[in-house]
């Protein structure tokens, strides 16, 4: 016989302690960037969708923005096409951008929408191309159809939020000539969150957050300001792949987001820990 870890009284206490946070975020927009390695484990993916559905059920206006780099690479490999990266960005020729659109706007987007529906959340899948939501131009000729965002239109998102749906957005974009572009998911999340003037932006990644010592997961810095972030750049604490992530955090805050959290998306229920508990999860970047 399996004994429950928590008594009914303890469960009730947990819910009571979450109440102030539920009141705080009720009716507020929270943008969640979900992608990379946090999407690979199917059990973990279900838990993330459960967390998002729960937030939606208690009145949080969740916007889910997703990537899918590993799945793009897997399909390219099956098609005999080698993935090439320059400065951490995928070189995207015409054939590759078709694969990106197929995977992100098709397979990944619709699987997340279906999972959310199964967990009790009402969701609708969009790509950045729908309603001209994300308009882009060529970022760097060396990268092919990798886009630099030139305009965000929030109407497709706000219309869904007003009708009480969870928008699930894949980060492909277009231009006036009908070209399709692959957009970095963190950049798209920052720009969309800023345009929506979101209360929070949560960026789920595969590290605990900003670490004083990158080799010591216990050296997590729980909170920094924008000015402190610049100091950490100079000291080398923020380096490598964390630099563009923190850049996106700073851009989102400058665009009007209240605060941004970088967290480990592989930790079960990390979203709920961040939003509905005193403890939090990851590193919060504030103005």
Please describe the topology of this protein.
Blueprint: H1 8-25, E1 29-34, H2 42-57, E2 61-66, H3 69-78, E3 85-86, E4 89-90, H4 94-118, E5 123-127, E6 134-138, E7 147-152, H5 155-162, E8 166-170, E9 172-174, E10 180-182, H6 185-196, E11 200-205, E12 223-225, H7 226-235, H8 242-254, E13 259-264, H9 270-276, E14 283-286
Parallel strand pairs: 1-2, 1-11, 2-8, 5-8, 11-13, 12-14
Antiparallel strand pairs: 3-4, 6-7, 9-10, 13-14
Helix pairs in contact: 2-4, 3-4, 6-8
Describe the model.
- This protein has 287 residues and is of the alpha/beta class.
- It folds into two domains: 32-46 and 60-196, Acetylglutamate kinase-like (Carbamate kinase); 198-287, Acetylglutamate kinase-like (Carbamate kinase, 3-Layer(aba) Sandwich).
- It is 41% helix and 22% strand.
- It is built from nine helices and 14 strands.
- It has helices at residues 8-25, 42-57, 69-78, 94-118, 155-162, 185-196, 226-235, 242-254, 270-276; strands spanning 29-34, 61-66, 85-86, 89-90, 123-127, 134-138, 147-152, 166-170, 172-174, 180-182, 200-205, 223-225, 259-264, 283-286.
- Strand 9 (172-174) and strand 10 form a beta hairpin.
- Helix 2 (42-57) crosses helix 4 and helix 6 runs parallel beside helix 8.
């Amino acid at each position: 016989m399996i004994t429950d870890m928590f008594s009914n009284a303890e469960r009730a206490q947990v819910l009571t302690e979450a109440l102030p946070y539920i009141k705080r975020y009720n009716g507020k927009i929270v943008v969640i960037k979900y992608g990379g390695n946090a999407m690979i484990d199917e059990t973990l993916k279900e838990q993330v969708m459960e967390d998002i559905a729960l937030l939606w059920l208690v009145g949080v206006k969740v916007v889910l923005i997703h990537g899918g780099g590993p799945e793009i690479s897997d399909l390219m490999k099956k098609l005999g096409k080698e993935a090439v990266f320059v400065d951490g960005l995928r070189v995207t020729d015409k054939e590759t951008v078709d694969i990106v659109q197929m995977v992100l706007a098709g397979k990944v987007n619709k699987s997340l929408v279906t999972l959310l529906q199964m967990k009790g959340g009402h969701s609708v899948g969009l790509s950045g191309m729908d309603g001209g939501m994300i308009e882009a131009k060529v970022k760097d000729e060396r990268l092919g159809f990798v886009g630099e965002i030139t305009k965000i239109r929030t109407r497709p998102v706000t219309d869904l939020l007003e009708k009480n749906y969870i928008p699930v957005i894949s980060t492909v974009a277009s231009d006036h000539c009908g070209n399709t572009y692959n957009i970095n998911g963190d950049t798209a999340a920052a720009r969309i969150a800023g345009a929506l003037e979101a209360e929070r932006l949560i960026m789920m990644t595969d590290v605990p957050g900003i670490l004083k010592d990158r080799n010591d997961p216990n050296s997590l810095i729980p909170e920094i300001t924008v000015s402190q972030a610049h100091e950490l750049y100079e000291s080398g604490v923020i380096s490598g792949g964390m630099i563009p992530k923190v850049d996106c955090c700073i851009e989102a805050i400058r665009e009007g987001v209240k605060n941004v959290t970088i967290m480990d998306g592989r930790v079960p229920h990390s979203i709920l820990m961040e939003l509905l508990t005193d403890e939090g999860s990851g590193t919060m970047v504030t103005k």
